[in-house]
Design goal:
The protein has 2 helices and 5 strands; from the N terminus they run ααβββββ. It is an alpha+beta fold. It has one domain. It is globular and about 40 Å long. The relative contact order is 0.22.
Length: 138
């Protein structure tokens, strides 16, 4: 499995069409996970949930144009894409990890996770828009 040591990420840049296409394909799964995490944080820590509080419309309104920045790492078996998704008008962002590669000659597109913080530190869904994309393993 890839990690920060074996799969260095390039510098942050606006997403190329391939990243936008992958994000678009995975967006329904990403939205589902956001709503699941929202429910989790409503029970365990309502403060972390601010941008979605009482408004799941924010999730339903997410679109490919909200993917503002990516960092990409390559391994022999595929491409790991870490993306910053900015919630319009909220000055907050969340981070997604996606993968595209091949298995048995077939294209594989996978949504890995949403960054919620490092183990042992504060957990939350949304971060200041200025936060930079870093490798995460959730």
């Amino acid at each position: 499995m890839a990690d920060a040591a074996t799969c260095p990420l390039d510098s942050a840049h606006p997403p190329k069409q391939e990243s936008v296409d992958l994000f678009t394909a995975l967006l329904p799964e990403i939205k589902k996970k956001l709503l699941s995490l929202k429910k989790h944080y409503e029970v365990h820590d309502p403060v972390t949930n601010t941008p979605l509080e009482g408004d799941s419309g924010i999730v339903s309104n997410l679109s490919p144009s909200d993917l503002k920045e990516v960092r990409v790492g390559r391994t022999p078996y595929g491409v790991h894409i870490f993306g910053k998704v900015v919630i319009d008008g909220e000055k907050k962002a969340f981070f997604v990890r996606m993968f595209v590669g091949k298995a048995n000659g077939e294209k594989v597109e996978k949504f890995h996770c949403i960054f919620t913080g490092e183990p042992g530190q504060e957990r939350k869904l949304f971060w200041p828009e200025e936060k930079e994309i870093e490798w995460f393993d959730e």
